[in-house]
Amino acid sequence: MCQLLGMNCNTPTDIMFSFTGFATRAEEHKDGFGVAFFEDRGVRCFVDHQSARDSPVAQMIKAYPIKSDNVIAHIRKATQGRISLENTHPFVRELWGRYWVFAHNGDLKDFNPRLHGAFRPVGETDSERAFCWLQQELAKAHASVPSIVELTNTLSELVPRIAARGTFNFMLSNGQALWAHCSTQLHYLVRQHPFHTAALQDEDLSVNFATLTTPRDRVAVVVTEPLTRDESWVAIAPGTLKVFVDGAPLAA
Length: 252
Known about the structure:
By secondary structure, this protein is α+β, with helices and mostly antiparallel strands. It has 4 helices and 15 strands. It has helices spanning 16-23, 56-63, 126-141, 148-163, and strands spanning 3-14, 33-39, 42-48, 67-75, 91-95, 98-105, 169-173, 178-182, 187-192, 197-199, 206-208, 218-223, 234-235, 240-245, 248-249. The protein has a 7-stranded antiparallel sheet, covered by helices on one side. Strands 5-6-7-8-14-15 form a 6-stranded antiparallel sheet, covered by helices on one side. It has a two-stranded antiparallel ribbon with strand order 10-11.
């Protein structure tokens, strides 16, 4: 299946180290990739239906130190829908005057909900249909952007209705928080003071974060499989929806 990467921070941070390790996994997951960076209320979204190992877009991202406090990245191993640009995650929609970004790892069977005109998929994937349905139902439940706690409560009611159709690991952000739902496999860690050196699992690359950060910085990284070999990753229990704000998970 696909691979997910998310980052939520209390100060804008670049993703080059994590993305370098993440892109290495495109050898197996080679049906496209994408990454979306929030900058205040705006979003930079880069997608390519080529493998992240070969794509010039991926090479640009590795070399371009975009800083963001919410990032979602995805490398695709197609299960539904053609290998094409419109089927490449992350997907972006507007709701309540904010951009929302979504990426999914899994396979949903016979998920064809009724969708009205404001939320229609452009591509053919179960993932984009799920995103459109979530946005539609959130819009029904709230007239304007609610608090993060209220959004989490509503998502907690909606997500099981999709997850019942198959595997539904996903990441979702509106630039204020990062929501991550584990259906089968997700891990996270929080990097904060005192910072240490970390080495990637899949590349011969390490970074001493103590030289790049301040004592106030905090970064949560969420990923399908741990990216580094010398940090303490926490497995998220299947069936759990976690929300990260300012670089840390909110208490349940």
